[in-house]
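Ticket reopened. Same input as before:
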Amino acid sequence: MTSHRYIPNGEQVTQEMLEELGISSIDELFADIPKNLRFQGNLPIEDALSETDMLRHATELGKKNQNLDDNICFLGGGVYDHFRPLIIDHIIGRSEFYTSYTPYQPEIAQGTLQMIFEYQSLICQLTGMDTSNASMYDVSNAAAEAVLLAINNTRKAKRVLISEAINPEYFEVIKTYLHFRGIEVITLPVVDGKTDLSRANDLISPETACLVMQNPNYYGTLEDVKQLGSMTEGKTFSVLITDPISLGVLEKPGNYGIDIVVGDGQSLGNGMNLGGPYLGYMAVSRKHIRRIPGRVAGLTRDSRNNRAFVLTLQAREQHIRRYKATSNICSNQSLNSLVASIYLNVMGPQGLQEVCRQAYAKATYLRNGLLETGLFNETRGNTYFKEFTLQYRGDAKELLDALKQENILGGIELDNNEILIAVTEKRTKEELDKYLEVVRRFQ
Amino acid sequence: MSKLFFTNEHEYVQVKDGIAYVGISDYAQDQLGDIVYVELPELELDVAVGDPIGVVESVKSASDIFSPVSGKVVEINEALEDQPELLNEDPMENWIAAVQLSDESELDELMDEVEYKAFLESEA
Amino acid sequence: MSHYNTLIFEKSTPGQIGYSLPKLDVPEVDLSNLGELRQDLDLPEVSENEIMRHYLNLSLLNHSVDTGFYPLGSCTMKYNPKINEDIAKMPSLAYLHPKQPLETIQGSLELMYGLQEQLKIIAGMDAFTLQPAAGAQGELTGLMIIKAFHEKNGDVHKNEIIVPDSAHGTNPATVAMVGYNLIEIKSQADGGVDLEALKAAVNENTAGLMLTNPSTLGLFEQQIEEIARIIHDVGGQLYYDGANMNAIMGKARPGDMGFDVMHYNVHKTFSTPHGGGGPGGGPVGVKAHLAEFLPVPVVDKSDDGYFFNYDRPHSIGKVKAYYGNYGILVRAYTYIKSLGGPGLELASDMAVLNANYMMKRLKKTYALPFDQVCKHEFVLSGIKDHPEISTLDIAKRMLDFGVHPPTIYFPLIVHGAIMVEPTETESKATLDQFADIMEQIAREGIEDPETLKQAPHTTKVGRVDEVYAAKALILKYGDMTDDQIRRD
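Engineering reply: fixed in the latest deploy. New output:
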């Protein structure tokens, strides 16, 4: 192959360049690779697909999927079908945002830098915390990094306490990180859907780095965040995993004295994309400001004395601190944090509260309807926000299959015929009634 | 009567009445550039030679301060918390931590002012 | 006049809204059932059109690949093809929940499986995970795999990772994250691994070595087989940092060089956009003896179709929720398909030709510490015979010409390093133009040093004060004082 639409130098120009270099073929530029290491022949990957053929191939692949335009989504478990305002794609489709790199040259990257500063501000307003970083890969990693922050700043750290009611995907990630650090994980049991904090007091010692809880927890049940804050104060780090939408109405974790708040920005206007990319937010109280991992943007001024922004606190980071850095992270989910910022600005206080009001009312409508059929047990307490768990008295798989027949993805099947059901503001009464109608067939 | 010593990490030790005042040399502050943050050790901390007793950060670097002597940290220069630039302005006046010496013979391992000047020239 | 720097908070007007939601069609429920509610929600109140204008004005302050040349060494800022974006946004491939039934995502699983197969071929590795979200997380995953391997063999005493001093900062930072000790070895003058230093550093505690090849100086490490032998002889594992894969596609493969585990940066090699600093993707590949340790799940195939395989008892576990940055992986897959095997080889050919052409031009005016054939990038050391002219000033002056400066002050082993990586997606005309600019700046630096020291002159934003930011630590709107906030 001698030309491709992404590669501007054609044969003639290539020839000119070779002459300039005084060589006869490009191959000579690879003569420094020892002969026995040179790859022989051609990469056995099919020849280039033209633009039309590639589009056709992608369409064919897409036909083997069933996406959520054709199915009503009650799946949640950390990823939610909230409405994505259309303006988002118009902004993130700007080349100046998505084809730029980390803002290492602040004079030609103020767009990204100011965006990050605003994102940090919005996350702090939402969580009530003092300082946010510029975002991390996703909530599972933000939670793991929060735990590492606690470990690195607890002199005798040997173990961490983690609620059994956090999302199992996040739990698995934290467990992996800690295994390789030689830190023990002690789980706090769940009673009536809530984390049993009554025994946690006895488990906290100078060797305990932190206590991790999620609100609403994996089962959708609301936790006692106030107690988490008060019982850990002065003793160990508190780490709270949050649902950003719920913070439209729930008390700010910052008001409960939580040390580190994390959460996933998927709900804030980011597409589902089969699991990523999303963003993990992390916000801390002021006293931990120099301990946070990841990038941070700060306000400054330029040589003309105009307001400007720049990456700051960099002496914590891997490119300067190397082995002693607060983390190895070398990126942020910049484009996803732009999405989250746009979402929060579009919604504003009224819109976000309206999303909460609708999600809660619709979740209540469906939950009450399901309980009225007499086919379900309340196994995870009776508090919830936009997601709840009920136990089906029959075979949950059978029920979910029947719903699927009607193009309803009815929820995530847990053990013991429990089903985790998420209801966003996007669901209509008609859709909720359809769900109930299918369930009633089993009465 | 005070005595002044230097290390090859460009720290100085000013000894007065059995207490070692540890700071960074003028050369060190010049190399670091604008200092934006100083992390101080905890009071009462017991340190051995080579133990970390602080960090000095500029925008583009972070340097650990290692104790050149053994002993107990008896005083820290809290003014540096709000005014890290003091290290640029007058590093000899603005020591970072004071260590009660437990073994004065360790000072024999350090350079005196004349030796340090020669060391700087050899490094250049 | 100032550049556009109005904060969205300063545009907020009480009562303005930017959202549109349907009316609630079920009975309202009292929110106070939820427990303690917040008293304030201090978000901006801005209409949709004002939000659009705000972000568009911000975007105009950014340099980007689509705006102009972006020769950042070690970052591979190549063109981001538009078909990648379009396919990644197709609802049939994007509007998918990670917990959907497998039979509803067979197309996406086929794509992921296909990508794993392509990555294996290009790297000469035996198995892949797509889960790591970025190169740094790929490194972390790789070292976890190495540690799990040693643990399974009962070699728990192996607790040292060797890293050359020329390495990217993520390498040593990753070593710390998995609880390994760092053994840093000095590089040779030409940036290659010093075999004597390596031999002195290895022992029975050596768990592995992290290396990139071509090196961070853009030079092919010719002693790689000997290095691999030294590490393998003491039972260590060889980790390949795939940051520089763009130089060698179809030319040489880490798997053939003796590496046991590696990561790609799909946002470098496979053209997925950098997004202003992320998201990226860092798939990790391993040789057969390490395959059982890959994170769960891996995408697998059976007679019933594609599935997520969780049945892997020796897996290190999960490093990220779900299956990786899937939306980014769709773009990487599209890129590989759009180039095909021969196209990928052409990309490496032209990336290396462009770098050598540029190096030849620039070494007339800039110091080139390692004057030999380079791969996809090369490192200069300031202006020839004028070490007093600061690299930072040279970089800031480039901004006046509408190009992004190369990576500066990295690798650390080169004084005043200027690391240039043109990539294959730039034309000779662009390279010539850039070289002209670099030559002009060199002349200015010698004849009129103040021009450089005061630069940039023509950008919308003047030189930014990093010291002020680091001391003031104003990290959010709420940290700003009244006189820093503008009220119109």
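The mean pLDDT of chain B is 93. The interface with chain A takes residues 36-37, 39, 55, 57-62, 64 of chain B (CB under 8 Å). Please confirm and we'll close it.
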